[in-house]
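thought: user wants a sequence for this fold. calling inverse folding tool.
action: design(structure=
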């Protein structure tokens, strides 16, 4: 059981955590949650150079976090799994709560 769990955790880290390691990739996922987008649309929405967006999309695509679909001469990217956004929202809630707790502690000490 422990070995199986450890293997799953290692895979989680390699696939999901590594995919989310760059904040720009998380922003891309949120953009794709709204609607499928092309590289050009993501470049404009995130004010990021095209080569950087393409590299991030490659990383996300390799991990199954985004899906590329050819639409004529362009490629549209969409979210690979809606649960990614649910997980990110949950992590953001944990972060907000932790920051709030820290701020309360500082207030009490000051």
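)
observation: tool returned 110 residues.
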């Amino acid at each position: 059981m422990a070995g199986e769990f450890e293997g799953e955790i290692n895979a989680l880290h390699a696939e999901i955590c590594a995919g989310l390691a760059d904040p720009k990739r998380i922003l891309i996922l949120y953009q794709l949650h709204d609607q499928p987008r092309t590289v050009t649309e993501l470049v404009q929405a995130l004010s990021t150079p095209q080569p950087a967006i393409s590299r991030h999309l490659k990383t996300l695509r390799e991990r199954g976090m985004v899906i590329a679909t050819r639409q004529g001469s362009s490629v549209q990217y969409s979210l690979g799994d809606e649960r990614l956004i649910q997980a990110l929202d949950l992590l953001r809630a944990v972060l907000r709560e932790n920051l709030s707790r820290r701020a309360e502690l500082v207030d009490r000490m000051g």
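thought: summarizing for user.
answer: Here is the designed sequence. The longest strand covers residues 66-71.
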